From TrEMBL:
Organism: Romeriopsis navalis LEGE 11480
InterPro entries assigned: SAM-dependent_MTases_sf
Domain of life: Bacteria
Stated name of the protein: S-adenosyl-L-methionine-dependent methyltransferase
Length: 166
C-alpha cells in the first residue's frame, strides 16, 4: 500500500523499517516492480539505545534503555507522518516508546500508533503527550485501535514552559 502511495506522490519520501529477516523478505517480495525511487525498505536489526527523555514515572516505566531500529541516517528530513507498528512488544517493555524521539517530527506532523487498545501503548502515548507536547487528535478503530497524535506549532516551547512552572 505504501509503495503504491509513493508511486502516486513522487515528492513524498517513504521509509519502512523491518528488523525481522523473515518479514523483511516477505515485504520485499510483495513490493511492485519497478519500485518507486521514493520508497525505501530497510532491514534494520534492533540495537540498544539510551533515550534522553526527562520523564520518569511508574506509568510508562523507567524505559530509558530501549531497543530500536539500527537506522541512523546522516541527514534525516523532518517526518510529517510516522506510522508506529513496531518493534514488537516482545523485544522490550514499551518497545514503541522511542519512535518520535528517534525520528524528528515536523511541526504539524502526525504520529499514528497501532494497538492503542493495549495498556502499554496507552502509557506510551501519555509519555509522548507529557514529554514532547504531542496532542491526541483521534482514536480510530481499524482492525485494531489506532491513536492519532499531532505535533502542534508550539510543542517544544509548551513542554519547556510546563517544566519551568513546576
Amino acid at each position: 500500500m505504501l509503495a503504491n502511495l509513493a508511486a502516486q506522490f513522487p515528492h513524498v519520501q517513504i521509509v519502512s523499517l523491518e528488523h525481522d529477516t523473515h518479514w523483511f523478505e516477505d515485504t520485499k517480495n510483495q513490493l511492485p516492480a519497478p519500485l518507486p525511487s521514493n520508497f525505501h525498505l530497510h532491514h534494520t536489526p534492533l540495537t540498544h539505545i539510551q533515550l534522553q527523555s526527562p520523564q520518569r514515572d511508574a506509568d510508562a516505566g523507567d524505559a530509558h534503555t530501549q531497543q530500536w531500529y539500527d537506522y541512523f541516517p546522516r541527514t534525516q528530513p523532518l517526518c510529517e507522518l510516522l506510522l508506529v507498528d513496531g518493534p514488537p512488544g516482545s523485544s522490550s517493555s514499551f518497545a514503541r516508546l522511542p519512535a518520535p524521539y528517534m525520528i524528528p517530527m515536523a511541526t504539524g506532523g502526525c504520529v499514528v500508533i497501532d494497538d492503542y487498545e493495549r495498556d502499554e501503548e496507552q502509557a506510551i502515548v501519555r509519555r509522548w503527550l507529557a514529554d514532547l507536547g504531542l496532542e491526541l487528535m483521534d482514536i480510530v478503530e481499524f482492525n485494531t485501535t489506532l491513536a492519532v497524535l499531532r505535533k502542534p506549532r508550539w510543542a517544544g516551547l509548551e513542554v519547556k514552559w510546563r517544566r519551568l512552572k513546576n
